[in-house]
Amino acid sequence: MKEKAKILDKEGVQRAFTRIAHEIIEKNSGIGELCLVGIRNRGVYIAQRIADCIGKTEGRKIPVGALDITLYRDDLALASGQPLVRKTEIDFDINNKILVLVDDVLYTGRTIRAALDALIDFGRPRTIQLAVLIDRGHRELPIRADFVGKNIPTSQKESVEVRLLESDGRDEVAIMEKD
Amino acid sequence: MSWVKKDLLGLEYLTKEEIELILDTADSFKEVSTREIKKVPALRGKTAVNLFYEPSTRTRVSFEVAAKRLSADVINIATETSSVRKGETLIDTGKNIQALKADMIIMRHNCSGAANMLARALDISVINAGDGWHEHPTQALLDMFTLKEKLGRIEGLNVTIVGDIAHSRVARSNIWGLTKLGANVTACAPEMLLPVAIEKMGVKTSSNIDEALKEADAVNVLRMQFERDEGAAFPQQLDYFKRFGITRERLAKAKKDIVVMHPGPINRGIEMSSDVADGANSVILDQVTNGIAVRMAVLFLVAQAREVKA
Lengths: 179, 310
Fold this sequence. Notes:
Chain A has about 180 residues and is of the alpha/beta class. Chain A has a single domain (about 1-25, about 35-75, about 85-175), classed as Rossmann fold (3-Layer(aba) Sandwich), CATH 3.40.50.2020. Chain A contains four helices and eight strands; from the N terminus they run E-H-E-H-E-E-H-E-E-E-H-E. The relative contact order of chain A is 0.22. Chain B folds into two domains: about 10-135 and about 290-310, 3-Layer(aba) Sandwich (Rossmann fold); about 135-285, Aspartate/ornithine carbamoyltransferase (Rossmann fold). Chain B has a five-stranded parallel sheet. A four-stranded parallel sheet of chain B has the order 2-1-3-4, with helices on both faces. In chain B, strand 5 (about 160), helix 6 and strand 6 (about 185-190) form a beta-alpha-beta unit. The interface between A and B is medium-sized, with 23 and 24 residues.
């Protein structure tokens, strides 16, 4: 794969997080019962950054959990290559909370479907909202995001790479295509 | 690193990386048992058969709980009440289970090598839940998982295994696994219960438990099976407890934070005293809890390996 275009640079990524944080506050008018759950791996880092941003604005700490959806995948039985099972860590009660699910890229919607199934096993939030850094289209399920950092029209031959400080040493988003 | 084996027969046959993959995967599965809804859909539609030719409660129940928390269907076959009594061979039994479209057989058998033989004859997964004096891989894996959880690592640890080493599949699997992961293992037993040439497995031997405990970070206390030879058992038991029993007095001379393990069921007052079994160094019940996560990891990985191949 080679890089076709840079979509967001360091500042762009940061601005997106800040904007999503403010939209979350605005939509939920104050943050009585808010919590964030990121989907492993990059969704967790993004959730943490957005939570920090909300925390700074509102002057309180927002709980952040990590969700691994491997065991809920709909293609587990036909997965090519073996998925690695990672840790789910949700150390707080999600019952009756406003829960914002966070991922890096929204594509087919199947990951989100799996995440919703997993979350329901942890409790019954008052509402679940979805925040993603990138929405690249091509949905295969009736799922949409409530908060989007950037919409990017892509072809299915391309892939979107989100790189973050925590996992990749720098913040940026690029479109990759086969050479 | 991905898992490619359809079976889990023993730790002798695994690489260090494969053992670490099981332990890491188990670490992720541990959380499932802490949820209010202790179930994930990973093995929905899969059927696991518990085929036990020897009595076992904790291993069978642990596998059953593990499979159910992964949403697999579990069927238990106790051989005392099955066609085995009518003379059906092991392989015929296995082929019949396969013909029922089960996906995996979890087997306990009194003959060493039984699981290997069954695995060769079948296309479905075979998980060894103990075969004769050969191996009991999931017990050793849960022992190592518990060690890692309590002490943070395996490599470089001094682990003493005490008891009937010669007849213990738990000891054998532990020795394979621990040495592969870089622990220093001492096998401690009365001379007649130390198999010849056990040093070839990379362990030190001792017949003095106080010596063997001195540098130990952990001691794994095996169950003495005196019930197998009644008659002269009672004086033998007393003598064993005196020479090898793990007591508070003995532990007082060992490292302060020594981890005490036992695969269960415990003979209180034979291989260890009650105050040790229930004491601060004992992790015996943690082993039981961890056994579920380890067995979930094994069931998940062998099921995945079959999918990848197919």
